[in-house]
Amino acid sequence: MSAHARPTRTSFWLAYSRRLHQKPAAAPVSTPRRSSAVVTIGFFGGIAGLTAAYLFWPTTYRGAPTVTARPLSLRHFTPLTVTASEDVGPHLKLITLHVPPESRPDPTTSEDPLAMQPIWSLFVKDDDLQVERPYTPLEGIDAEGNVKLWVKRYPRGEVARWLHAKRPGDTVEVRGPQRTLPMHERELEEVVMISGGTGYAPFHQLLHDRLLLDRPDDNRSNCRLTLLHGSKNVAELPPPEYLGPLFDYAQKHPDELAIHLFVDEPPAGGLDRPYNVTPGRIDAQAIRDRLGLPDNNKRSWWARIWGNGTPAHSHTRQVFTHDGKILIAVCGPEPMVAAIAGPYGRNYSQGSIGGALAELGFKASEVYKL
User: Fold this and answer.
1) How many domains does the chain have?
2) Is residue 23 part of a domain?
3) Would you say 353 and 312 are in contact if contact means Cβ atoms under 8 Å apart?
4) Radius of gyration over alpha carbons of the chain, in Å?
5) Are 292 and 346 within one domain?
6) β-pairing verdict for 171-179 and 146-152
7) 366 burial class (0-12, 13-18, 19+ CB within 10 angstroms)?
8) In this structure, are 217 and 128 located in the same domain?
């Protein structure tokens, strides 16, 4: 990707399953904006229940038939061949599936023309236990028909253990694509992505599609994109072949993309990767600092002199009003999602906003939990 300045680019469409019709009663409070770009995102309130059901995984196998020589679809399973299975970290594998030409969806004829627009996932079926779980391809389906899944094996993760046992030449049945964060219409100036572990995959798919694919300038977006990602340690960070190109892009276009990495366990020796990592977890202060939000917990001058530990204006709560032009998407292990944005609701619905984002004053209409 060249470093030369590009012409002004049009918005991309990003929509999510939320009820956005409620307007805040409080008067707007101005906040610093780091981008004047506008991207458009819209309402999909009618699919909120479907998204909640999608997120309730692993699900029991529902009897969809298995077919071949037909495009991928949510209505049936399609057998794909494993072409590679690489160890890329502790209990982490990069698994490549091949989609033959006859199984690649055609947006002009498919049942959902927008199904292959980021962010989308595939359901993978465990043939042994007859359960399925959604996985987000890191880069969608590439020109050769390859789908790459970044999969971590957990002690109680049935489908992940099953996938880790697969070898090149084996067959895996999938159905989808399923849109996780559908694209449509609502104006945005900034999208903030907060991820933990393999919850990075949906955001990589979006960033790869919007920033790294070679496409005409007039099809690109001017939306400011910020990624905050946390891993247990350096070895569990996303593979360098995926993070590296994004860091290169961020260095060339800092007005478009910012990336901040965090690890629970700081490296004992030097970092063997060409980017900075912050020790510690993503919390309210980390989000505030990276987004340049005002810090209302700073003590007044007289408190600093007299040693009073009570923050200035501690009785008030700052409310950030962005006129609906910011989206904060959160994806990762449930405890991390709860700490950042509050726990999921019943059956993995959005639930109410909580955690660090509620502490910072963000509204439910500005937050989405994948």
Assistant:
1) 2
2) no
3) no
4) 21
5) yes
6) unpaired
7) buried
8) no
User: Which of 160, 178, 196 marks a domain boundary?
Assistant: 178
For tokens 């697969």, the residue is: 166
For residue 41, say if its preceding peptide bond is cis, omega within 30 degrees of 0. Answer: no
Rounded to 5 degrees, what are φ and ψ at 319? -115, 120
Give yes or no for a contact between 144 and 48, defined as CB atoms under 8 angstroms apart. Answer: no
Q: Does one domain contain both 226 and 363?
A: yes
What's the CA gap between 128 and 144, in Å, rounded? 29
Which own/partner pairs from 240-243 qualify as long-range (CB within 8 Å, at least 24 positions apart)?
240/273, 242/138, 242/204, 242/208, 243/273, 243/275
What's this model's pTM, rounded to 2 decimal places? 0.77
Q: Distance between CA 91 and CA 110 in Å, rounded? A: 36
To 5 degrees, how large is the angle CA 281–CA 285–CA 288?
120
DSSP string of 288-305?
A: HHHHT---TTPPPHHHHH
Compute CA distances 18 → 21, 47, 143, 299, whole Å.
9, 9, 33, 37
Residue 216 within a domain: yes
* Sequential pLDDT tens for the chain (370 residues): 444 443 333 343 333 333 333 434 444 444 444 444 444 444 444 444 444 444 444 554 557 899 999 999 999 999 999 999 999 999 999 999 999 999 998 877 666 777 788 899 999 999 888 899 999 999 999 999 999 999 999 888 899 999 999 999 999 999 999 988 865 546 788 999 999 999 999 999 999 999 998 765 555 567 899 999 999 999 999 999 999 999 999 999 999 999 999 999 887 766 666 678 999 999 999 999 999 888 765 544 444 444 433 333 333 334 444 556 889 999 999 999 999 999 999 888 899 999 999 999 999 989 999 9
